[in-house]
C-alpha cells in the first residue's frame, strides 16, 4: 500500500519554535507525531520516531524498549542507519557513560546511546 502525501499544514509547536531559534533541548528533538509519551506504551499500532527538524525516521516501535516517565526517558534497542552516534564518549553528573546520537540527515541531536549506567538505570536498557 502506497503512503499518501498530506498537504495539511500542522500548527507550529513550542518545539518547532525552539528548533528554528536553535535552542532546543535534545530530549525534545524526536517526534512521535504529537502522541504523548504516556500513551505510547499502550498503543498497539506501529510507530516511527522521526527527527523533528527534517522528519528523517530514526527508529520505530519494533525497537521499542520502554518509557520511564520520572526520567522523561524513552528507550529503544536500535536506531536506523539514518541516525548516527558520536565518536566521543561523555559522562553525565550520575557518571553514566554515553555517546550523543544525532540525525544523520540534518545533524540535530536526538538522544543518547548509553554505554554504562548507574544501577538505578540498568532496568531501562
Automatic annotation (TrEMBL):
Show the ranges annotated as biased composition (Basic residues).
1-12
Composition bias of kind Polar residues appears in 23-33
Superkingdom classification of source: Eukaryota
Q: Which residues form the Mis18 domain?
A: 46-125
Q: Lineage of this protein's species?
A: Eukaryota, Fungi, Fungi incertae sedis, Cryptomycota, Cryptomycota incertae sedis
One Pfam assignment: Yippee-Mis18
Gene Ontology terms for molecular function:
metal ion binding
Report if keyword Transmembrane helix is assigned.
Answer: no
Q: Which UniProt keywords apply?
A: Metal-binding, Zinc
Family, as annotated: Belongs to the yippee family.
The protein depicted here goes by the name Protein yippee-like
Annotated region (Disordered) at 1-33
